[in-house]
Amino acid sequence: MDITVAIDAMGGDHGPHVTVPAALAYLKRDAEVNIVLVGLAEVIEAELRSLKVSVTSRLRIHHASEVVTMDDPPALSLRNKKDSSMRVAINLVKTGEANACVSAGNTGALMAISRFVLKMLPGIERPAIAGMMPTLNGHTHVLDLGANVDCTANHLLQFAVMGAMLVSAVEHKEAPTVGLLNIGEEDIKGNEVVKQTAELLRQSHLNFHGNVEGNDIYKGTTDVVVCDGFVGNVALKASEGLVQMLATFLRQEFKRNILTHLAGLIAYPVLSAFKKRLDHRRYNGASLLGLRGVVVKSHGSADSFAFQFAIERAVEEVRNGVLRRINEQMAMLNEEKA
Amino acid sequence: MDITVAIDAMGGDHGPHVTVPAALAYLKRDAEVNIVLVGLAEVIEAELRSLKVSVTSRLRIHHASEVVTMDDPPALSLRNKKDSSMRVAINLVKTGEANACVSAGNTGALMAISRFVLKMLPGIERPAIAGMMPTLNGHTHVLDLGANVDCTANHLLQFAVMGAMLVSAVEHKEAPTVGLLNIGEEDIKGNEVVKQTAELLRQSHLNFHGNVEGNDIYKGTTDVVVCDGFVGNVALKASEGLVQMLATFLRQEFKRNILTHLAGLIAYPVLSAFKKRLDHRRYNGASLLGLRGVVVKSHGSADSFAFQFAIERAVEEVRNGVLRRINEQMAMLNEEKA
């Protein structure tokens, strides 16, 4: 199965310096994939020249004259930058010239443009951002990570369907377990929306584990953790902040004096292995779910190594029919309701 | 200033085995403090005997015939256990025989009983749980950590007042900075409640920093971080889960083989210093704010070292008039509105 990925080559903090080498590296890894680099042709060509590579049948350039910046308000990017690399890459998915789009650009703009151009899948009211987080026993998928701040129980139910189908597609799990993020495991805990969602999930055909708490994310209690975008985003950002604080404290302790410096040198291979195990670059690539097309958001600061994981995520979603799976499940859900 | 603290001696996973030694140790540290140990007199006396200590003018026992367990539903604890150590300790605050109550018991029951017995301060609609979290530059105070799952903008404004006054009392800061937990720093971000709260905070006399994100908690961007109890609880529990996962990974890496074991031995003093710096026992003691009395909740699993921090927190709140400060600020707030 040939898969074509449209890459917003200008997106992210480093633009073509990252997206172009990542595309080249990915093409070597997966012979079934073709890549379209979308953006300012001159700049992309210059990057290819500097890497001593030229376009091939599997790698082509699609010119787009504008660039969405990290500071552009989503609404303005949508209205005023119709020839942006981001928008043109999404258009290629719309027209069927590409099977998926990957961008490290402005999340709000990517969400707004994707939604406007691709539209939502039947029965899905809101798109959600799903990301992977490391756990004691592997990893889990959390959604929504920030697309929706006010959610109804039906929205959360749809997120659960999308998250479960994402995991079934990219991890080949038949019936992924779904946990509902709450502040206690008991049914009576939580706010009204969460209680209603639990009821809907219990009635659904999904493999609903029940309520989970914040610590269950990292315990890996379930394959999928469902929450609204406000809570998901706070949990994600708080985790990032905590890891940064711990890393700083650890560095400071090892730099305290000559003995601790020496201990640090001796422990270096162990600390490196520890760090590698948590390497957030391996978790790069958040799925924008609910759209009539596969769109993956890379972290803006991703390097080439990290960006390849975002491409891989997009390829796996296409290869394993995540959209078809979501459609099938939504149809089942509607039958259950009827 | 003499301060009397009523301790629910039966509360927590370890009951008098922790609360009694902690009380004794605290009395040695602070000559202005008296402690009333509330609970089953026989059990407390046995604990004192085993420690070869007897009651004094500064340490007395107040018998209470019942105990609230960790599994007791809050409503039943309130209705059926009128002579529980928890309730009697709170009653002592109500009658003025004690200035504060400290309990490591069931949080829900402590909240329900405190609210029923002590009532709320004028103008405060909901009690909130405020806890201290470590940051890059010290620590910050986050509230609410789980008492309220559905909050209005006015509730969050009241939390901000209470949090700021807590910090002004226990850390002697004149105008503590207040951050509103959100999913972006821009004013337009967030849900409706948060946007309204930001507006109220901007109009208030508080030192409002603006929106903060999850990572700002650990950066220590503000002295106080305000959020609803659902978000606060998820952030807290996710952080606990993350730290446990990281600690497990680090242990696993140091136990991989004989060389890594050796590196671990050499790095041990550094890793210990690191661990000590993060010692959650130093952060033990969450304030139940908004009540007409000082109530501090210790973690259920606290040891004697940790429990002393909860006692200290209660003493400092009384000593520095946290209730008076909240009352004054609420009066100012009402004037501003009028």
Return the CATH topology of the largest domain in chain A: Isopropylmalate Dehydrogenase
* CATH class division of the largest domain in chain A: Alpha Beta
Number of strands of chain A: 11
Low-confidence stretches of chain A: none
Helical content of chain A (DSSP H or I, runs of 4+) = 40-55%
Shape of chain A: globular
Order of helices and strands of chain A: EHEHEHHEHEEHEHEHEHHEEHH
| Oligomer description | homodimer
> Strand percentage of chain A, roughly?
15-25%
The radius of gyration of chain A is: 21 Å
Greatest contact between two chains: A-B, 58 and 58 residues
What is the straight-line distance between the termini of chain A? 37 Å
User: What topology, given as strand order, has the largest sheet of chain A?
Assistant: 3-2-1-4-11-10-5-6-9-7-8
Structural class of chain A: alpha/beta
Mean pLDDT of chain A: 93
* CATH hierarchy: architecture of the largest domain in chain A: 3-Layer(aba) Sandwich
Sheet with most strands of chain A? 11 strands, mixed
Task: Please count the helical segments of chain A.
Answer: 12
